[in-house]
Inverse folding.
């Protein structure tokens, strides 16, 4: 297969374990891991890659379970060439590899309010793809456009409206790699914005298991979200509440546990396999359906193949 892959200036690694690249620290190897040097390197690679070869763009693995058998694909992970953060007027343009928290802080330094990003784990590429949000604000509320490289190597700039952002989802084309996003932000005093972020961090740390190995919220809240991605707090049903009602707070399978602190957080207590984590999640879904007739939808992305028997 090596002879069929295009030459690159970045790093191309065969049979690369993905476990250490995910927050849950589980998962098997990818056939290849490609870390492009810059956008031109990524464009050339995708343009020259056999169209039949699967491609999986990966951020920092904050919302991901890679199954124990690994991923039969070329995993593309962006690094330093894709983490710039620039401000101009009311606009913030961030590379897809820039961490959400860093974007929030740099925007605040420039007097621009993207504070909702401060407590969202992960990077900008994933935030756009999942229409991430919290504290009543979502990517959809601020996004202007996205620059991406399509699977055939074509570079395009896509208006936010064309992504059809909804609650925890978007219409990013299969195999496309987001490389940058531009946001519009309201102005504010840097000190006020910093205080707002400090308050958000304190609230998060008081209610979520931030010191444990998790991937953030495990399941989407069942109902109460408009097509824009905003939550309707007057009708919203919380995933943690239906999990509690089903008696699954603190439930365990192997090294996997539903956090006793916040029951919609699936955690690796140490030594969990991807199968432990996914099986526990599926058991939660089963119990919630039996108890309340509600089918929980995974918010964590699960990819790859199970381990061979």
């Amino acid at each position: 297969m090596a002879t069929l892959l295009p030459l690159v200036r970045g790093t191309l690694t065969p049979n690369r374990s993905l476990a250490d690249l995910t927050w849950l620290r589980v998962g098997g190897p990818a056939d290849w891991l490609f870390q492009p040097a810059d956008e031109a390197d990524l464009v050339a690679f995708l343009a020259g890659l056999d169209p039949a070869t699967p491609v999986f763009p990966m951020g920092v693995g904050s919302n991901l379970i890679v199954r124990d058998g690994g991923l039969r694909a070329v995993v593309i992970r962006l690094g330093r060439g894709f983490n710039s953060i620039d401000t101009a007027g009311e606009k913030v343009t961030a590379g897809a590899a820039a961490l959400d928290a860093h974007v929030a802080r740099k925007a605040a330094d420039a007097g621009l309010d993207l504070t909702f990003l401060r407590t969202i784990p992960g990077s900008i590429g994933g935030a756009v793809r999942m229409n991430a949000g919290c504290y009543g604000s979502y990517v959809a509320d601020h996004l202007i456009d996205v620059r991406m490289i399509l699977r055939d190597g074509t570079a395009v700039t896509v208006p936010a409206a064309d992504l059809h952002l909804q609650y925890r989802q978007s219409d990013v084309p299969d195999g496309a790699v987001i490389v940058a996003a531009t946001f519009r932000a309201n102005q504010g005093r840097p000190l006020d914005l910093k205080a707002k972020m400090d308050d958000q961090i304190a609230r998060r740390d008081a209610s979520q298991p931030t010191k444990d190995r998790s991937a953030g919220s495990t399941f989407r809240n069942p109902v109460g979200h408009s097509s824009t991605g905003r939550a309707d707090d007057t009708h919203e049903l919380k995933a943690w509440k239906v999990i509690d009602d089903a008696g699954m707070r603190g439930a365990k399978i192997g090294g996997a546990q539903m956090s006793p602190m916040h029951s919609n957080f699936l955690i690796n207590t140490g030594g969990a396999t991807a199968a432990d984590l996914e099986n526990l999640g599926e058991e939660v879904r089963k119990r919630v359906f039996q108890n309340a007739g509600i089918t929980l939808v995974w918010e964590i992305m699960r990819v790859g193949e199970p381990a061979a028997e």
Notes: The chain has six helices and 19 strands.
